[in-house]
Amino acid sequence: MVNDGDGPVYYVISDLHMGGDEQLGEIDFLDELLDFLGRLETVDEDAELLINGDAFGLWEFTDIDGLAKFDVLTERYPALFDQLRATGESIPITLLPGNHDHELSAYDEYVERLAEYNVDLVQSESITRPVGGRTIWFEHGHQQDSNNRFEDFGNPYETPLGYYYNSLVTSRAGQLSRRGRYNWLKDVQAVTPTERVPRWLVSKYFYREMSPLLRYAVIPFLLLFNFSVILAVLAGLDVAGIWTMPVETADAIFAQIGLVGEAVHFILVVTAAVTGVLLLAAIPLYLILRDVGKTVDRFGVFETDLTVDPAEPYEEAAREVFEEHPKTAVFCYGHTHRPTMTEVGDRLIINTGTWLKRLHRRDVIAGVLPPVFYPSYQLCVVRISSEPDGVAVEYEEIHKADPTVEELTLTERLLTLGRKPTAELPGRSVVSDEIPASVSESGE
Q1: For the chain, N or C: smaller number of CB within 10 Å?
Q2: Residues 274 and 315 in one domain
Q3: Is residue 208 included in any domain, yes or no?
Q4: What's the structural domain count of the chain?
Q5: What is the C-alpha separation between 148 and 15, in angstroms, rounded?
Q6: Are residues 78 and 184 both part of a single domain?
């Protein structure tokens, strides 16, 4: 069958992560969210707003338990809950729990409390909605993540690995963030994959916390490190009598430059000497670390990776849903914070992204300086509707001011040549609304 274009329209957002200890309580996108919810009050269509998991950061509250967390949320963000109540009077608002707000599924009191603000909390891991002659499958996506999966959904005492990371690392970062020279530590929740956290910490220490005098003193040495490696190798060949370095020629060139040449010459000599020592020490150190690594692998100490493939498990899950429920046109999830649209035959897999800040790694132009993590926002809403041609899916970008100038130092921008993130949201796609005759006859 081909739908005539009439029917409900769904607006989908996810991964807002609102709430948490101390600095995690700041919502950078609150104004944009209020504006979006306000717009939904005036839509002239049969619309529904679906919040597809992780609306709240309940895991990130470590000093309070149970419904007391919800009390903090309503007290901290009165304008948000007032707007939810107002928007909910115009269109239905449906909230599906994610892993960070899994407690919503554990206590029926949350259903009653959210209903006071016209939000329908569905205590389920997935829901479906009709669109034209097809259906949409919604799930947050943590079900496909071994670190955040709940074997007993709705059990308030079940704590997967992700819970401990957020309660011990993310929440602690929110409590300590204000102590830095700049309020940056709270952004640890924006670092993905998790394995990048150590490099991110080194980067922020170097560019934000290190004494400026020390930082600017070592930058020339670190910038010239690669060149110094070559000099150290050539010096070694010179000592071994294999190759003779043109020392006199180089000295003459530096002498012509004057004081700047003498400074560069001094830096190169010192850096080459230090590099030579490091190279000599690196050989036995590498052999030792490799042997330790083999021993660790034999004992299987680290058998669980913190990072889950951002696409593969969700594609497998979607294919299973498409096979078991042939009318399903769209598989919609969040969790990984990557807004994507993937075609699987005549179906679509879509990820609704996140409203949190995102960090993009950029390597420096030379040397061994720490990488720079550029901040950006990709606030987006996914709109799913029925049209004469089929089921239409499109992304709407919610404009948010660029945080680069405010959050990155001039040094970081210079060392990366200002390479800002250029990620774009997926465009628009239409899934055919035609249902195979065998499926229609079976009533699937």
Answers
A1: N
A2: no
A3: no
A4: 2
A5: 14
A6: yes
Residue position matching structure tokens 């060139």:
253
Q: Which segments within 125-257 are labelled E, that is strand?
A: 126-131, 134-139
What is each CA distance from 404 to 181, 290, 357, 375, 418, in whole angstroms? 17, 39, 11, 6, 9
CA distance 358 to 189: 9
Summarised one tens digit per residue, pLDDT across range 52-108 is: 999 999 999 999 998 999 999 999 999 999 999 999 999 999 999 999 999 999 999
Name which of 76-85, 146-155, 168-177, 236-245 the model is least confident about.
236-245
Domain span including residue 231? 224-299
DSSP string covering 175-187, please? Answer: HHGGGSSSS-GGG
Averaged pLDDT for residues 151-175: 93
Closest CA to 9 of 46, 56, 50: 46
Q: Is 397 exposed, middle or buried (0-12, 13-18, 19+ CB in 10 A)?
A: middle
- Contact yes or no for 13/395 (Cβ under 8 A): no
Q: Is 219 inside a domain boundary?
A: no
Quote the CA–CA distance of 135 and 140 in Å, as a whole number.
Answer: 17
Residue 360, classed as helix, strand or coil, is strand
